Predict the structure.
Amino acid sequence: MRRFLLSIILMSATILCMAQEGVAADNGANKGATGSRYHGDGIDDVLQYSPLAATIALKLFGVESKSEWGNLLINTTATYANTAILSYMLKHSVNSTRPDGTDNHSFPSAHTAIAFAGATIMTKEYWHVSPWIGVGAYTVAAVTAADRVRRNRHRWIDVAAGAAIGVATAELGYYIGGLILPDREQYSLSVSPTGLELVVKL
């Protein structure tokens, strides 16, 4: 497990450093041609939600996850609520200007936080099925972070902080979920064509 996490961290750092170098080169070219820095919408707007979407899709297709539907719903809600609150508070208190100069909400990267939160959820839910699911989830999250830097929307410190927030809020979300639904054998939530069905064993 430690080797896996270390390899993910090293891979992410390598990608981010390469992306930062690419940004510097692109900025020079773009400034010379247009007088302004490059920015805009990118694939990261979709990639940030991909790990969470894949988690739900796998469960819908019958792949056995760690959590029942009820636990997964609570864990995910708690995770993203904390991610949004913490990211918003930091963005509006640190007031770091983006590299492209569009606003002063650069730190931390919310896209990266969302992606890494989803990757952590996916890893927790399906690590027992295959560790490669976790590798794929964190790779997508790392690509999301790298693209934010490549397009000059963030610096490497912004996405590093976003990644840390995503992982931390996912861990906190599962802790909160465990407090709300401590015993998965006592609660059962199923999804059917007619709706949701909650069974509580007394």
Notes: The longest helix spans residues 2-34.
